[in-house]
Amino acid sequence: MLVFYTVTVGWIFSVCLHEFGHAAVAYRGGDHTVAEKGYLTFNPLKYVDPLWSVVMPVLFMMIGGIGLPGGAVYINRRLLRSRAWDTAVSLAGPAMNVMLVVVLAALFWTGLVKPDATHPLACALAFLVQLQLSALILNLLPVPPLDGFQAVAPWLSPRLRERALDLSNICFFVLFILLWYLEPMNDLFWSAVHGLSELLGIDRRLGWIGFREFRFWER
Asked: Is the peptide bond before 145 cis (omega within 30 degrees of 0)?
């Protein structure tokens, strides 16, 4: 249960951090409405979309250990000063995930958390790092409505951008079908997640134990 609660609380915090990054850069870029909407806070209720922030992320963590991007910050992109600011707003969220991954990995680098498979906190943090990495890779794909697409969208023609965004739900659904059932794509995705984890000095097996312990209902 310690693993479950640590990962769940850590994930909620990461969603807040991600969305705060979007809002903070949007505010600097000219959209001051984010302050009126309460986005310049770490209050999870300000970012919650019942389906995409709660139900779907928890479901995917339970069944596959994938960090599904969640949260909802509504940016008035027409108020942003330039296309460069628009792109910066989209990339600010993933940048917060990168920062959080570095902080979590630093706990292992400095020895504050020992990479001990019998230590619940170590397993929980290793799994949380892998969740962050999976969310980061997924979110940077240039598929609408993910941040990777939003980053390039300002540089597309308005007609192409609007048509792509109209297909957001379909594109997102197809992406997950391919990721789930197309073995080469699934292998490539997890190879990237585990490779980055190993590069950070965190044994992928520790993250797997964390995932297994997270699913306490199977024990």
From this structure: yes
| pLDDT higher at 184 or 57 | 184
Closest CA to 145 of 128, 166, 125: 166
Residue 45, pLDDT > 90, answer no
| Average pLDDT of the residues in 68-80 | 81
Distance CA 219, CA 215 (A): 8
Average pLDDT over the chain reads 88
Instruction: Copy the structure tokens of residue 116.
Output: 């001990």
Backbone phi, then psi, for 151, in 5-degree steps?
A: -70, -35
By annotation, the residues acting in catalysis are 19
Q: Which of 206, 18, 32, 19 is nearest to 129 (CA)?
A: 206
Please state the pTM of the whole predicted model.
0.89
Predicted local confidence at residue 180, as pLDDT: 80
In angstroms, rounded to a whole number, what is the distance separating the alpha carbons of residues 151 and 183?
Answer: 28
| Count of beta carbons in the 10 Å neighbourhood of residue 147 | 24
| CA atoms of 123 and 114, how far apart (whole Å) | 10
The pLDDT confidence band at residue 168, using thresholds 50, 70 and 90, is confident
Burial class (CB in 10 A: 0-12, 13-18, 19+), 54: middle
